[in-house]
Amino acid sequence: MRIDLHQHLWPAPFLAALRARRGPPRLDGWTLELPGQPPFAVDPTDHDPELRAAAGGDELVCVAPSAALGLDRLAPEESAELADAWLEGALALPHPFAAWAMAGLADPDPVALEAALARGAIGLELAADAIAAPGGLERLAPLLDVLEDRPVLVHPGPAPPQLGSRPGWWAPVVPYVADLHAAWWAWADGGRARYPRLPVCFAALAGLGPLHGERHRARGGHDSAVDPLTFVETSSYGTGAIDAVIRVLGIDVICHGSDRPYAEPPTPALGDAALHAIRVRNPGRLLARVNAAVPA
């Protein structure tokens, strides 16, 4: 089963909930308004389930609302309303879609997350900056304790407000990557020890955080074995970066993620065996505890 762990597709109930909001983050028609950011024109075809299902040839596509919207840090009642609207729509999407849940962080609600998992969510999308913040794992504990061995997708959180004259590529190339890098090392610094069974997948090769192991050791860190339950996915990267991370982590924790509709994934020139591992075997292992029908 070919699996894409990371796409964004906004179903009708979620679109309606965003349009009903009076202030950002919100949708005005198809214009996305985020705090401190210029308006962004959303292409309606990007959120057409039939068109998306035909893209990429994947047999399982895991969709998330996108932690970059900042919905998780709204007032608890607002984030809960959006989380409900998201899950209602995402769980109703046709084959091949599966849904990551979202959760508010101002007052984490483990009961709501338990309900989302019971309804069919595969796991939880969390913002990288929430994990990386000092004391982040403690604040996220009510949610992480519920997950036990259900997976987490670590995704970039919202870009800093007022990027000014920076070009459109600045946010995904600079703050998103930096937050993922920080989250990777925050998880290494006690996350796995606290949650030994929790599968975690970092978007965008964890901001290339794994490549800094040599510097970590040179500055006093301790060498450690590759964690078989800490995965990275490949969105927005090609052969060079993927190959470099494989040289550090090995092939067994590298998974496919496309970040559609914001990126079109290249096919890395790594050979058929590596591509099978990245697109089939490894994401299947990440999700195997969610549904025994997903091959490990």
Describe the structure.
With 296 residues, the chain is an alpha/beta fold. The strands form 2 sheets. An 8-stranded parallel β-sheet has the order 1-5-6-7-8-9-10-11. The protein has a 3-stranded antiparallel β-sheet with strand order 2-3-4.
Largest sheet: 8 strands, parallel
**Unreliable stretches:** 292-296
Strand content: 5-15%
Summing up helix and strand content along with how strands pair, one would put the structural category as alpha/beta
Order of helices and strands: EHEEEHEHEHEHHEHHEHEHEH
Number of helices, counting only DSSP H or I runs of 4 residues or more: 11
- Residues in helix, %: 25-40%
Radius of gyration: 18 Å
Q: What is the typical, i.e. mean, pLDDT? A: 94
C-alpha termini separation: 10 Å
**What is the count of β-strands?**
11
How does the overall form come out from the CA principal axes? globular
The largest beta-sheet arranges its strands as: 1-5-6-7-8-9-10-11
Précis, in short:
The chain is an alpha/beta fold.
Task: Describe this protein with a few key phrases.
globular, 11 helices, three-stranded antiparallel beta sheet, eight-stranded parallel beta sheet, 296 residues, alpha/beta
SSE layout:
Elements (H helix, E strand, L loop, with lengths): L2 E5 L4 H8 L6 E3 L2 E3 L6 E2 L7 H5 L6 E4 L12 H16 L5 E5 L8 H10 L3 E5 H5 L3 H12 L4 E4 L14 H4 L1 H20 L5 E3 L10 H6 L11 E4 L5 H11 L4 E2 L16 H16 L9
Parallel strand pairs: 1-5, 5-6, 6-7, 7-8, 8-9, 9-10, 10-11
Antiparallel strand pairs: 2-3, 3-4
Helix pairs in contact: 1-3, 4-6
